[in-house]
Amino acid sequence: MTNSEPNIQTASAESQSSESAIVDAQVEKATAVSYSEEIETVIASMAVDQKVMVGQNEAGGHLWKFKYGSVEVFVQLSGETEDDTLTVWAFVLPLPAKNEAQLMRKILEMNWLSTLESHFAIVDNKVAVISTRTIAEISAGEISRVITIVATIADDNDDLLQAEFGL
Hints:
Elements: H1 8-31, H2 35-46, E1 52-56, E2 62-68, E3 71-77, E4 85-94, H3 100-113, E5 119-123, E6 126-134, H4 140-165
Antiparallel strand pairs: 1-2, 2-3, 3-4, 4-6, 5-6
């Protein structure tokens, strides 16, 4: 005896299983906070004057600018996929500067132990504190930490570097 009829119980269980997976995915998507929302929450808690400039490009990237202490901090999110990046930077000193060789040595030495996940770099003829990483598996705490580290190190060092090496 052959049974050409489909197993209704199995088909029904498979249908319920796939429906359940779809509902679970929709609930997860609805309750998940986007990276850009998380960044905005962090910035709102840090912005000195509560003024934040926000820009968005066609590819889904975002750029925020806010004031923290005496520096302007920039936060760029290139998109929302795991291959996209979060980059945070703040300028601390315009170039040229006096005693640039001594300045370069100082910031390289600071990169060794005092900048944590960030580092000093030269961007557009300015010394900046910068940090960048992919957003794959990034947590809310890591987003907050990277923004806080860059902002704090830049604010702690801009006046000192400008006093010693500024023109």
